[in-house]
């Protein structure tokens, strides 16, 4: 299952995504956590100190390796240099699986020990001084989009992506890559403004969107969110002493997290799991191709000097089957 956490800056999406990762790990569910925000805080939220978080390998720095591995023997892709962030897989491409060891995970993922379990953590890497004035942050998250486009994931295994703040993810097709998008919103006008943008942009793309109300401190806050987002409001979370301690670097056992927050995480998990029944691999592949052709026409063909439309394999549909037709087993939770 591919899960996105979005919201305005300061809404608490990194905190909520880290809690969701901890919840999955505590239940022995295989999980890859990806920090795709321009402000890289997910590692620290998962318990790493600042030095450990800063030492994580950046996915963007390993793009040549990622491209070459994913290209495999796909005859439609002449070279790794002609691959762009939206290049779709086809016959001969290498597909990725959450629980496997492969060169992409070996280069970019690092294990993070959590209470009762473990997660793999990958990061896009921060926006550096060398990037100022010459690079767009979307070029960094392109590595994440490529990863998701080649990922074959089953039920009871998760990729959780902490997305960049606001509605910036609509600058690429990555917003369509998820089974469930949790939008974290505070009970304020600014807090729900991103929800309205996301709802409008995602309307025609079959995006499953639910709102997680954060920093909700009473009935007035709850009534405000209900009035603004209606039935999209899934759960709310209030103040948490456990979270406050974590944000101060005072880590406590996950079992001490307040019961109301644990119940919210359980509901989020059940909602994400239920979205599995709505999976449509053909639509997923069709949207992937759509955004690839748009990117090819707008800038990709000129940059690579290649007709990138030729990379599309019209007979290929990504799904829970390996290229040879063998089903991909989904690990069972403990």
UniProtKB/TrEMBL annotation:
Q: Which InterPro entries match?
A: CobQ/CobB/MinD/ParA_Nub-bd_dom, P-loop_NTPase, ParA/MinD_ATPase
Its domain of life reads Bacteria
Segments forming domain CobQ/CobB/MinD/ParA nucleotide binding: 7-188
Protein name per its UniProtKB record: CobQ/CobB/MinD/ParA nucleotide binding domain-containing protein
What organism does this protein naturally occur in? Streptomyces glaucosporus
């Amino acid at each position: 299952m591919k899960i996105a956490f979005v919201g305005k800056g300061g809404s608490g999406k990194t905190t909520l995504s880290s809690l969701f990762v901890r919840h999955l790990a505590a239940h022995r569910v295989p999980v890859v956590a990806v920090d795709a925000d321009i402000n890289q805080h997910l590692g620290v939220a998962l318990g790493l100190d600042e030095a450990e978080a800063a030492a994580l390998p950046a996915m963007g720095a390993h793009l040549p390796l990622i491209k070459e591995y994913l290209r495999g023997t796909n005859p439609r892709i002449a070279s790794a240099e002609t691959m762009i962030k939206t290049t779709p897989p086809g016959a001969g491409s290498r597909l990725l699986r959450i629980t496997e060891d492969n060169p992409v995970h070996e280069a970019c993922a690092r294990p993070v020990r959590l209470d009762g379990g473990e997660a793999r953590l990958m990061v896009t890497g921060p926006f550096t001084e060398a990037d100022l004035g010459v690079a767009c942050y979307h070029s960094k998250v392109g590595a994440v989009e490529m990863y998701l486009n080649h990922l074959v994931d089953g039920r009871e295994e998760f990729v959780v992506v902490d997305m960049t703040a606001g509605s910036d993810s609509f600058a690429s097709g990555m917003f369509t890559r998820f089974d469930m998008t949790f939008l974290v919103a505070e009970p304020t006008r600014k807090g729900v403004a991103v929800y309205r943008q996301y709802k409008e942009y995602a309307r025609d793309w079959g995006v499953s969107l639910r709102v997680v109300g954060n920093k909700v401190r009473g009935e007035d806050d709850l009534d405000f969110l209900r009035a603004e987002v209606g039935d999209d409001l899934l759960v709310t979370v209030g103040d948490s002493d456990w979270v406050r301690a974590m944000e101060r670097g005072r880590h406590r056992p996950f079992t001490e997290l307040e019961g109301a927050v644990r119940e919210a995480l359980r509901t989020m998990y059940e909602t994400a799991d239920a979205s599995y029944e709505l999976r449509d691999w053909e639509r997923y592949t069709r949207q992937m191709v759509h955004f690839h052709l748009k990117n090819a026409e707008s800038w990709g063909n000129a940059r690579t000097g290649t007709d990138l439309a030729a990379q599309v394999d019209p007979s290929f549909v990504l799904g829970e089957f390996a290229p040879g037709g063998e089903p991909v087993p989904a690990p069972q939770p403990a």
